[in-house]
Amino acid sequence: MKFKMQDKQNQLIERITDKHLVIGVDIAQHFHVARAVNYRGIVVGEPITFENNEGGFSTLLNWIHEIKRIHRLEAATVGMEPTGHYWINLSKWLMKQDIEVVTVNPHLVKRNKENRDNTQSKSDRKDALVIADMVKNGYYAFVRNTSESFEQLRVLMSNRDVIVKRLVSSINQLNRWVDIVFPELRQVFKDITAKGAIATLRLFPLPMELRSMTPEQIVMGWRSVMKRQPGMKKAELLVHVARKSVVTRQALGAYRFHLEQLLEEYDLAVQQMDRVEQAVKEVLDSIPFARKLLMIKGISEISLAGILGEAGDLSGFSHGNSLLRHAGLHLVEASSGKWKGQTVISKRGRSRLRRFLYLATMSLVMNNPEFKAIHAHNVKVKKMKKMKSIMKLIGKLARIFVGIARKNEVYYAHKVQPIKDIAA
């Protein structure tokens, strides 16, 4: 496929010939519905409903072969919405049977519902027909085959997102507990998740307990659970603020029980985070060009894993702009006559990929000399808004990543931006 969109759309339409059977599948949890049309959009065959299991998939395959035989067609293309995770097994099973599988944008399916009957009606059969029409008209995208390593990264990073949410939730609840039971603890430890603060919450969380203790006893307690512990000054301050604490004395047993459970949740999330990040590092070591990408100052293993997990093998992209389109970071404009609308990013792509590209670029702007210089030049000399400069740098990062992956070369700082351009 050529990169230019005007050429790409024509090529997608031209691929559907008069020898093609186009099938649209409406995806659901238990039962899918399929409809078929020819290259002109004429409905062929009867609708079929089949189960989301191997028996149902075989029924669909036999139905496809029968329609191809009756209408003397040679090829079949199956289109479907990437709805949740219910479409994955069907798509992989069909590809193993040498059936071409493509996806359509759910947003466009909703917009094209009235093309057939000029009504707002909705049903599974109609949705399947709308999908078939969209594929026939070239509004589809190919399913990118990912190798084992990239599939592992996608699953691991998705799992990491879940763990991050749980970890943030447990930290928020710990902060709430401290605000209610021992708010003066923040005078000693600004960060409640610091090792000293967590050790204090484990050993003597209630101010009433600390009032009767000496600083030496507190330091001994810290030494029992920490290799490097806060000093005597911290212990003295802790005793001082505990004696002045004005918190409630009611339900202290329940509060202690609640804290124990919160610390268990926090410990579990931290352990799981360490395990998943270690697994991510091991997978990255198996990807040949990953080490070259990590040589770029400012690129972390987690941000790279997020990008590769969502985008797959970057060497499969023809250009960095293809990666931007995959992420929904390509520019769109709305204009009519003399009126010209604002140019914005489309956001029609993988939201998680957009997030990791943005975070990686922000890290480069803060830590990478080349990107920092370009950003400063954009803002101070070209008078760009900071966010516009960041968006341009995301495009540059995408082109660098795809170029390194395709050519298998290392990162050269002098190629990022000519020195004369920065100094201009």
Task: Please give a quick description of this structure.
With 424 residues, the protein is an alpha+beta fold. 57% of the residues lie in helices and 9% in strands.
Please report which band the strand proportion falls in: under 5%, 5-15%, 15-25%, 25-35%, 35-45% or over 45%: 5-15%
Helix-strand string: HEEEHEHEHHEHHHHHHHHHEEEEHHHH
- Fourth-tier CATH superfamily name of the largest domain: YqgF/RNase H-like domain
Alpha-beta classification: alpha+beta
- Report Rg: 29 Å
Given as residue ranges, the uncertain stretches (5+ residues, pLDDT < 50) are none
CATH architecture level-2 label of the largest domain: 2-Layer Sandwich
Total domain modules? 3
**Could you tell me the number of beta strands?**
10
Number of helical stretches of at least 4 residues: 18
What is the CATH class designation of the largest domain?
Alpha Beta
**Main pleated sheet:** 6 strands, mixed
Shape: elongated
Q: Quick check: average pLDDT?
A: 88
Placed side by side, the strands forming the largest sheet appear as 3-2-1-4-5-6
CATH topology (level 3) name of the largest domain: Nucleotidyltransferase, domain 5
Helix-residue proportion: 55-70%
For the record, give the distance between the C-alpha atoms at the N and C termini, rounded to a whole number.
38 Å
